Amino acid sequence: MTFIPENKYSELVQMLPICCVDIAILHNNKLLMIKRGKGETYGGSWWIVGGRIHKGESWHDAVKRKAKEEVGMDVKVIRQIKSYEFPVAEEKHFVTTLFVALGIGDVSIVLDDTSSTYKWVSEIDNTWNHLLKQMIRDTEVFDV
């Protein structure tokens, strides 16, 4: 796969929306949360696994790739929830589609360099970003 040079990519994200997937990964009735690294979108905040969709990649393939890249986990997509738009995140315009997936096989977490730590949770934390809380509510994985 060919990647856009960083300077060109920076120019493009100022002009165009970025298509993404976000993934509510479940295992043993708990949700996987990752703490985004300082240089990442929503850096220093708790979020769910996710990221950009590559050209020619399906949503389901992007979900599986991002789960493997970010946390070293294979997942099975359970359902698609809905799409969200947040155009002010660090001057970028994101359009993301939320999925619920189950961790399959070995669910040992191996973080890539975009996250600093992780945790499994069984409820929404009121300190989380308001959009993240709404996304988790929309999954209906917790009784909210």
Radius of gyration based on Cα positions: 15 Å
CATH architecture assignment name:
Alpha-Beta Complex
Number of domain modules: 1
User: Please, how many helices?
Assistant: 3
Share in β-strands: 35-45%
* CATH topology name: Nucleoside Triphosphate Pyrophosphohydrolase
CATH hierarchy class name: Alpha Beta
User: What coarse outline follows from CA principal-axis ratios?
Assistant: globular
Largest sheet, strands/sense/barrel: 7 strands, mixed
Determine the CATH superfamily: Nucleoside Triphosphate Pyrophosphohydrolase
Task: Give a verbal description of the structure.
With 144 residues, this protein is of the alpha+beta class. Helices cover 23% and strands 41% of the residues. Strands 1, 2, 3, 4, 5, 6 and 7 form a 7-stranded mixed beta sheet that branches. The model has no long low-confidence stretch (mean pLDDT 90).
